[in-house]
Sequence to fold (292 residues):
Amino acid sequence: MASTPQAGIFALGTASHAYLELDIEEGAEGRALVEGVTSLREPRTTMGGVNLVAGFRPELWRAVAPDESPAELEGFNRPIAGANLIMPATQHDAVLWISGSAYDVVFDVARQAIAALRGVARIAEETSSWPYHHDRDLTGFIDGTENPTLIEAPDVAVIPEPSPGAGGSILLLQKWVHDATEWEAQPTARQEAVIGRNKLDSAELEDKPADSHVARTDQDVFGKIFRRNMPYGTVTDHGTMFVGFSSEQRRLVAMLESMAGATDGVRDALTFFATPLTGAFYFIPSIRGLTH
Ligand code: HEM
Fold:
């Protein structure tokens, strides 16, 4: 119980999502933001049936709760530059990920949250997401095949006792816009070579290219992460909200560097069809960390 993670991280199957990234209001203190976000969990302001995952810019969290803060965790403070690709750094002070069975309840809870935080924080970035054909992303491929199961996921995503920040998790939130026209112009065999898996059933290609997405993010090389990616956007402007959790920031950073070609000049083939628009790391404290 001491270090129970925020349950929404593992609450699969919800049909509607909102990601709200917040900046602290001028003159407000980090502690007021943490307290404001913590109070969102009280029944007074929380509606039934909706999951709330809340996190903070690592440096802000460290200033407020130094004993509950993982060593060396940093915000996305500098762009990641690779082979003709720059992944932007768009760090904000806090994140709320609200998910539920339908957009109406997500909408109501998100608006309540914003109202409750008025004067302390304002919305810097807002994205709504929804599942596409059960478990596919907007490339049409199944997303999540190599994800750990829900039994394994806490070991992958949650910082273990007795480390500082135990029960917490590290979130990489990165919004990627897809070039749907260019992607859809590729024959299926080319798309499969880009991802490194079959489009129909997600079977891994035996001869997957070295620049395929699954080769560039191979968890046997970089360590395991737990992904909760969702499609986002409108019919004309859409993509993938990458939502990745890990107990170690290094795994996520190393995957990004590999995708960008920062280490060996080999850029992930997927990055020719999808472009990162945002990038931020948040610390997702344990329930106790949030309420201590
Ligand atoms: C446009 C953005 C992205 C899309 C559409 C996308 C899509 C996919 C797809 C279709 C797969 C194969 C099936 C699966 O195992 O889930 C996959 C695998 C994976 N992706 Fe992504 N992804 C994106 C961005 C990222 C980013 C930014 C990271 C890491 C920071 C990442 C990490 C992974 C990992 C770890 C795997 C499994 C690799 C393995 O086989 O071990 N992805 N992704």
Remarks:
- The chain has one domain: 7-291.
- The pocket of protoporphyrin IX containing FE is lined by residues 137, 139, 141-146, 172, 174, 176, 195, 197, 202, 213-214, 217-219, 225, 240, 242, 244, 252, 255-256, 259, 274 (CB under 6 Å).
- DSSP finds ten helices and twelve strands in the chain.
